[in-house]
Amino acid sequence: MGCHDAVYSNEYYDIISNDYEPIPTLQYVCRQNVADRYAIYYLDRRAVPEMSVGTYKYTSIPKCYTLLDQSALEVSGISRVQTQRNLELGGRGILIGFLDTGINFESQIFRNTDGSSRIVAIWDQSIDIGPHPKGFIYGTEYRKQEIDDALQQQNPTEYVLERDEIGHGTKMAAIAAGGEDEANDFIGAAPYADIAVVKLKPAKQYLRDFYYIKDDAVAYQENDILTAIDYLNRIAKEREEPLVLCFGLGTNQGNRDSNGRLATYLDDIATMYRRAVCIAVGSEANARHHFYGNLTAQASERVEINVTEDMRGFIVELWSHSFELFSISVTSPTGEVLPRVAVWNGQQQRHRFLLEGTSLLIDYQLGGLRSREQIIHMDFSNPVRGLWIVEVFPFRISDGSFNLYLPISDFLEEEVFFVRSNPDTTITVPSSAKFSMAVGGYNAVTDGIYVDSGRGYAVDGSIKPDFVTPAVNVHTQNQFGVYDRMTGTSAAAAIASGACALLFEWNINAMDNRTVNSLELRNQIVNGTRKVANQSYPNREEGYGRLDVYQSILNMRNL
């Protein structure tokens, strides 16, 4: 059996493993290596056990991620560094990489003045007509020459088949790297930057079913995101250009620390020479999908989950530190109780609530790759409307703290929320990565907060978000070439990505080819952030403050 069916067919499981770890089964059809660090195995579902956290480990099952939806450039100090004499920064010689829904490669705002494209590479994972990128077993790659040749034709889309049907990727690229269109009063943050794009392959149906993702939700698999990051880094190495990775995806699956597989890999990129990573923090602050608890050795805590309508199902995750262990019991709306059991790694409980017809599967796992945090994974199948109660008991505790998360809003079929929710620590995964830049949003029109922007901090106390940029009604262009507005922290991450491209250019050209990475760029940005009067910084809403590239450069000039 070839790799094509294994990668694209729903009849094959995708399993992620560290390259040095034993694979979960001897039966695999195909293998994709990622950066000599990870391996993705494709397993024939007919020959292996059914998908479950208990069988394949939480860390090995791909998580699913979704999209996180001219004044903005002015308040961010970008317009000034674009036009200031002796600066005139535009991102020249810098590569901005996007892994998203694709791009409208025909748009004039992604072209040079001679009509050629600033897009140097497109990897469309969703179509498999070839050629594959070197080192990858699926998808179709288009390089700059092919794109330029296609643009010379009467119908370019007959030659480059990539399409952005959703528009999110095009909007992100326009904000970060769109060229100037004086007639429509538009310019992106880094209008002369080079562009590389990965159009992500949609998640397989078995994973959508496993996580109860609603039918019309956009969802992408963790393993395809890992390969996309590897591809963009390879393109930058090949071209010997600095790379800014613009990440506008997120999920509520996973802990808010730096130990997850995707967060770890993004941090690996962020610490490399001339690499920067900007990650949107999501828009979950007001979704009521986070509960924070704190127990003493003698107490338990009741967590009430309100299910507003009967539904197919949903997942709840309880996370605690590696030195904390908890157990749970669950009470249905009619009062039937699933009692708690003794806790050890790999313990599993199954129960069917008779009056509700709801099935519940609970897995106790050590979920982290490095620090071995505890995760209690609760799978509610066919839950009825009403109040479900999860009671949390201490088993072995130190400070007694724990966090519970419901799925990200776009994945839920019906409204589900914690009755006593907590808006803090609502940044989406993987924006808690330690060395990458977590970007939140504010409202540049009112100069007020963007109330939905995910709030920090990370569970290890790291300051996240690092800073904020405009995220409400940001001027952009959609997949049809029509100017539009975009709201969400994805837009904020796109502005930050363009700003990083400008700072890369300034460090290289004005500062004697200074070598910087994501950590140093973050410090430069933080050094120039604008603070709001009567607020203390850093804080959970805005991190160290509001992006101001011009002030960052002024402050560095005075060092």
Overview of this structure, please?
This protein is α+β, with helices and mostly antiparallel strands. It is built from 12 helices and 28 strands. α6 packs parallel to α10 and α11 packs across α12. The chain is globular and about 70 Å long.
Strand-residue fraction?
25-35%
**Helical amount among residues, as a percent range?**
10-25%
Mean of residue pLDDT? 92
Number of helices: 12
Oligomeric state of shown chains:
single chain
How large, in whole angstroms, is the Cα Rg?
A: 23 Å
Topology, number of strands: 28
**In this structure, how is the largest beta sheet organized?**
9 strands, mixed
Indicate the structural class: alpha+beta
Taking pLDDT < 50 over at least 5 consecutive residues as the criterion, the unreliable ranges are: none
The CA-CA distance between the termini, in Å, is 61 Å
What is the global morphology? Answer: globular
Write the layout of secondary structure elements.
Layout: H1 3-8, E1 12-18, E2 30-34, E3 38-44, H2 53-56, E4 64-67, H3 71-75, H4 78-83, E5 95-100, E6 119-124, E7 140-143, H5 144-151, H6 168-177, E8 194-199, H7 205-210, E9 220-221, H8 222-239, E10 243-247, E11 249-250, H9 261-270, E12 275-280, E13 290-294, E14 301-307, E15 313-320, E16 325-331, E17 337-338, E18 348-353, E19 358-366, E20 374-381, E21 386-396, E22 401-405, E23 416-418, E24 437-443, E25 448-449, E26 467-470, E27 474-477, E28 483-486, H10 489-509, H11 518-528, H12 549-557
Parallel strand pairs: 5-8, 5-10, 6-8, 10-12, 12-24, 24-26
Antiparallel strand pairs: 1-3, 2-3, 4-9, 4-11, 6-7, 13-22, 14-21, 14-23, 15-20, 15-22, 16-17, 16-21, 18-19, 19-20, 24-25, 27-28
Helix pairs in contact: 6-10, 8-9, 11-12
